[in-house]
Each structure stands twice: as structure tokens, then as C-alpha cells.
Amino acid sequence: MKTKVGVLVMSYGTPESIEGIDAYYTHIRRGNAPSEEQLQELVDRYKAIVGGVFPLRENTNHQVESLQEALNADSRLPDVEFVCYQGLKHARPFIEDGVEQMAQDGIKKAVGIVLAPHYSTMSVESYIKRAQAKADEVGVEMTFVKSYHLHPQLIEALSRRVNAKLDLFKEAGAEREDVRVLFSAHSLPEKIVELGDPYPEQLLETSRAIADKIGITSWQFAWQSAGRTSVPWLGPDILDTLRSLSKEQVENVLVAPIGFVSDHLEVLYDLDIEAQDVAKELDMRLMRIDMLNSDPLYMVTLCDAVVDQLKQAQMV
Ligand code: FEC
């Protein structure tokens, strides 16, 4: 008889409908409702990308199903049956709902992993804290994967995507060395740096690992999607970077949003609409790498991280 181990797969979450955007945005703002103008601005951004479906929901569902299949096909822990649960940060099923469901299903041991490879106290740690608090309340023993930003299969999957787009640039007449590769991730308030947060360094490590693997030297890092608040956010912002690159006569740019793993608003709007508009203004050719979504190499990465974490915590 196999032992059941729960896997809480945590992701950002997305509204279920246009009407649900208000509640979702209020949750992101820790219970403070947005002004009518802020809400309308977000609704407009979703309307520009969704076409009736919120892509992140379907992508997360598929990632969770694929991970469960990959884990149960893995021969390293033959006595374990993995059961994956979804826990979202800002939408249903919330992180707490996922942990509660595990307890109701009789799961005694579980591992948590976030669908974001890089650790920050403001991102991954906040998912972990909420899951741990609920797990303590309902009596599930949990351990957590904190980051997996240098896993060889993750680097391989991202490198293939960069190479694929560099080939397209070549077909369009730009040699590899003439394309500036711009790695990007979600900005966070600058204060995380003073607090010694590893997020910026981990992102640079992933960027360097990809650049070294495929031999590109013309690359740099930029931040995207910063919040519109009064506190300073990590920069340089990607839109400003495009403007500076244009002044340096760079005409071809490939964006690699390595801090994200799915097609969603921050990629489909902030890069494919907003950054593309700036690139057009600058007469620049801008492409973006395909997102990982359920790439089998990404599933191997998650699978290894889960198994290693369980072993390290001596829970199996
Ligand atoms: O497609 C979708 O429906 C959801 C796309 C989405 C992802 C995402 C990932 C991250 N965020 C991170 C940090 C922040 C901080 C704030 C913040 C605000 C928003 C808003 C929307 C939004 N985020 Fe997000 N984020 C996504 C969507 N995010 C919508 C609200 C409007 C706006 O500012 O654009 C500021 C919160 C505050 O006001 O206090 C901080 C980080 C990630 C990547 C890691 C992760 O996935 O957890 C970090 C996807």
C-alpha cells in the first residue's frame, strides 16, 4: 500500500471573469478596494488580452495536472502516491483552501512548491507563510521548495526558447550577436535589496547560466511590471531600457521573461502590447521567448525539486 503525499502547487491566481476583477484586485491590495479609475485601467488591460478566458487559470490547471502525472511516473519514490492540490495567492482555490482540502482528504505529509523559480521574501516566502500557518492549524506536516532557478532542465528549457527566437531573428536578417537579449522579471520594491533578499541575484544567476550555455554575450537584465505606488521599485524598467537601447542604435531585442512561467497578463499585456508599442515607436524589432507553461522539462524541474525537498526534510 502506497503512502499518500500531498503536493501544494501554488501560483499567483487570476480572476474567473471580468466581474471578478474587482475582488481580485482588492485581494492583491490587501483588502483595500481600488479606485474606479484603477479598476477600469486593470479591466481594460484584461480585456485587451483575455478574449473571454483568463489564460493563467487554464495554464495553472494544466501545470498542476502534468506535475501530478510526472511525479507518479517517477520511479525514485515507488512507495509514494503523490496527490497535487492547487493553492492560489489571490484567487480561489486560495492557498488555505488547498491545505484544508489536503487535511480533509486525510493527507498527513505534504510539500509545497510555487510556480515561480526565484525566491523573494515578498513572493515565494509569502506563499509559504500562508500555507504553513494553515498547515499548523489543520495538522498537516509540510516542507517547502524555496527556489529552483538553476535546475539544469529549467536552464535547458529556457535556453532552447532563446535559441529558437534567435533563429527567427536570423531568418529576418539579424545575426545572433546583433540581437540584445533582455532577461526580465517582475519588479519589487527596492527596499528588498537592503533586507538582503536573494531575488535580484538569483535572477542574474539564471540569466548568466542561459547566456553561458548558449554562448551569448550581448545580454542584460531589466525589470518589468512595477507597481504604480509612491515607493521606489527595482529598475531599470524594461520600457526605459528599450529607449536607452534605441539610443545605442540597438535595433533587435529579444525579451526573455525568466521570472514567469506561464502566459498571463504580465507577459501578454506588459510585454506583448505595452513593450511592443514602445518598440514600434522606436522602430525596433522586438520578440519574446515562448513561456514554459507545461513544457516537459519544466515538469522534470518541478518533479526533482519536490522529490529532493521531501528527501532533504526526511519526510519519505
Ligand atoms: O494573468 C493574471 O491574471 C495574473 C498575472 C500576474 C502575475 C503576477 C506575478 C507577480 N506579481 C508580483 C508582485 C506584485 C506586487 C504587486 C503586484 C500587483 C499586481 C496587480 C496585478 C498583478 N500583480 Fe503581481 N502578478 C500578476 C498580476 N504584483 C493585476 C495589480 C495591478 C498592478 O499593479 O498591475 C503590488 C501589490 C500592491 O499593490 O501592494 C508587489 C510578483 C510576481 C511573480 C512571482 C509570482 O508569480 O508570485 C513578484 C503572474
Report on this structure:
There is one protein chain. The protein is of the alpha/beta class and about 325 residues long. The protein has 2 domains: about 160 residues, Rossmann fold; about 140 residues, Rossmann fold, CATH 3.40.50.1400. Helices cover about 45% and strands about 15% of the residues. It has 12 helices and 8 strands. Strand 3, helix 5 and strand 4 form a beta-alpha-beta unit. Helix 6 runs antiparallel to helix 12. The longest helix is centred in the middle third of the chain and has 20 residues. It is globular. The protein starts with a strand and ends with a helix.
- CATH architecture call of the largest domain: 3-Layer(aba) Sandwich
**Assembly type:** single chain
Indicate the mean pLDDT.
Answer: 97
Given this structure, which CATH class of the largest domain is correct?
Alpha Beta
Order of helices and strands: EHHHEHEHEHEHHEHEHHEH
Number of strands: 8
Number of helices: 12
The small molecules bound here are: ligand FEC
Q: What is the beta-strand fraction?
A: 15-25%
Largest beta sheet: what is the strand line-up? 2-1-3-4
What's the story with the biggest beta sheet? 4 strands, parallel
Q: Helix/strand-derived class?
A: alpha/beta
Termini Cα gap: 14 Å
* Rg from Cα: 20 Å
State the helical fraction. Answer: 40-55%
Low-confidence stretches: none
Pfam families: Ferrochelatase (PF00762)
InterPro entries: Ferrochelatase, Ferrochelatase_AS, Ferrochelatase_C, Ferrochelatase_N
Subcellular location: Cytoplasm
Pathway: Porphyrin-containing compound metabolism; protoheme biosynthesis
